[in-house]
Amino acid sequence: MIDPIIAVGDIHGFSDQLDRALGVIETQGLGDVPVVFVGDYIDRGPDSRGVIDRLMQGQAEGRPWTCLTGNHDTFITEFFAGPSNHAPEDWIGNRWLTRDFGGAATLRSYGVEAEGRDPLRVLEEADGTIPDAHVGWLEALPRMHMTEDHVFVHGGIRPGVPLEDQDP
Q1: At how many degrees (to 10) do helices 48-60 and 15-27 cross?
Q2: In Å, what is the CA distance from 89 to each residue of 53, 75, 83, 85, 86?
Q3: What burial class does residue 79 get, using C-beta atoms within 10 Å of its C-beta: 0-12 exposed, 13-18 middle, 19+ buried?
Q4: I want to staple 122 with a disulfide (CB 3.0 to 4.6 A). Which of 36, 85, 98, 114 is the partner?
């Protein structure tokens, strides 16, 4: 028999929905069952900060939670890296702060308004506002989690390509 494990998909800044899912897990008596969160904790929803706080708190309390990185989680770390000198037009900050990507909602949850502002000015303000612990936590998240019976990733695995050769 395979040991139970729970997978939770993209949360995208909706801390109320995260709390609802965790509440269901608890009321079903599954609080000790491992949970794998497969990434995309930020962007789009109103409370990315609250989502990260809750997940970091649960891990610090020793809950059996594994948090993987998703593509949206990497956007914030790329944003903080700033534009490159050789291709500043390709900097994620030029796209991440739009509604489609959801970065403005993430920054708003930290008290930084990004809508209609120069991304470099937003970066300056966000750099002094968003806790280093949050950015460091996002940067340190693994891309994959394996058990004896399962492989968890955010976006998929390419068939026929060995796991160690997968392109993130």
Answers
A1: 40
A2: 32, 15, 8, 10, 9
A3: buried
A4: 114
Q: Amino acid identity of 20? A: R
Q: How far apart are CA 34 and CA 60, in angstroms?
A: 15
Cα–Cα–Cα angle for 18, 95, 126, nearest 5°?
A: 65
Bridge partner residues of 7 (DSSP): 36
Distance CA 123, CA 145 (A): 32
pTM score, two decimals?
0.93
What tens digit of pLDDT does each residue of 44-88 get?
999 999 999 999 999 999 999 999 999 999 999 899 999 988 777
What distance in Å separates the CA atoms of residue 97 and residue 94, rounded to the nearest whole number? 7
Distance CA 163, CA 81 (A): 28
**87-139: per-residue pLDDT in tens?**
778 888 888 998 778 999 999 999 999 988 999 999 999 998 999 999 999 99
- Cβ atoms of 72 and 155 within 8 Å: the answer is no
